[in-house]
Amino acid sequence: MEAVRFRVHRFRPEDGHRGSFREYQVPKKKGMTVLDGLIYIKENLDPTLSVRYSCRMAICGSCGMRVNGMEVLACNTQIVELEKKVITVEPMKNYPLIKDIVVDMSEFFVKQKNLKTWLIRKDVVEQENPTRQYAQTEEELEKILQFTYCIQCGLCYSACPVVSNLPQFLGPQALMKLYRYLADNRDEGEDRLAAVDKFEGVWRCHFAGSCSTVCPKGVDPALAIQLLRRAALK
Amino acid sequence: MRERNVMLLHYATGLAILLFGGIHIWTLFFTYPFQGTIWETTMRFDSMPYAILPVYRNTLLALSLLGLLVSTTIHAFNGLRIILAELIGKRNIWIERGLFAIGAFLVIYGTRTILIAHMLV
């Protein structure tokens, strides 16, 4: 059976160095994904390898990593599609590393939480015990639909060159999520724009567009940021 | 000043540079006769009409040059503020104040020069 060479980033915090790469030969099968390869390594070659995954069908967003230098979901990337003999697997950038290819995404979620990216209604009691539907027309839904597909995998945050240089930058995902609620006609949250109208907010985007390129769900965070800027300038 | 207003100023000064820069180039290259190199022509105060500085005796042109000076300074120093923050990895209020001071100095000194040119006989 034909084999493919996996070059996997290994890091143990107790070793105190920056990490290194270890190579594994993995038998290649039809339809095999990068995640399948990593699971094969963990089950058959090296049980010390740490990988974060869950659904294996590009829904949970847990297995985000860099494969051959590109941010991808490992479960959504077939080995044959890569057309390479060597598959280099690295952790996502712009996150503190926990172990091997597993990163700490706390800051990513904190930034999003600070922007209150959920539906806010003035009548909280009614929201908790709704008596009717919060209906939307098709046109109203169309404005936000693509942004609701975000699975919070964090690939856009890893690909963002501004986050690399300015870690305080809120990042594409949080800003896109904020726009999703700002543009939602059911939302009554106040001061949403004030939360991003600061130095590390919406204005720091350089419109490199790498966030939109790597999004596995086809969301366009770069567009959301531009729309957010337009809303902030009104 | 809110970041929204800073960036609005940044965009506005970017457009202003195009406008005032266009006037500046048009004035110098297409309306006044040159004699020798640009430097020689610029520095020639004695032999009219082959002199550029007296162009700014015209109040509108002097104001347009002032506009170019102010917009370029604001745009450039705000750009530098952002570049430095990203280079350092965080915002530093003292660097921003320093840049503001240098920018203000350049505007004041440049305004003085334009006023001198404006009042040349």
N-end to C-end Cα span of chain A: 62 Å
Count of strand segments of chain B: 0
Estimate the mean pLDDT confidence of chain A. Answer: 94
**What is the total number of structural domains of chain A?**
2
Kindly report the CATH topology of the largest domain in chain A: Fumarate Reductase Iron-sulfur Protein, Chain B, domain 2
Strand order across the biggest sheet of chain A? Answer: 2-1-5-3-4
Query: Which structural class best describes the helix and strand composition of chain B?
Result: mainly alpha
Gyration radius of chain B (Cα, Å) is 17 Å
Q: What share of residues of chain A is helical?
A: 25-40%
**Assigned CATH architecture of chain B:** Up-down Bundle
CATH class of chain B: Mainly Alpha
Distance between the termini of chain B: 42 Å
Describe this structure in words.
The complex is a heterodimer of chains A (234) and B (121). Chain A has 234 residues and is an alpha+beta fold. Chain A contains 10 helices and 7 strands. Chain A has helices spanning 34-45, 79-82, 106-114, 124-128, 138-144, 155-159, 161-165, 172-182, 210-214, 221-233, and strands at residues 3-10, 20-27, 64-67, 70-73, 86-90, 97-99, 102-103. With 121 residues, chain B is mainly α. Chain B has one domain (3-118): Up-down Bundle (3 helical TM bundles of succinate and fumarate reductases), CATH 1.20.1300. Chain B has helices at 3-30, 38-43, 59-88, 93-118. The mean pLDDT of chain B is 86. Classes of the chains: A alpha+beta (234), B mainly alpha (121).
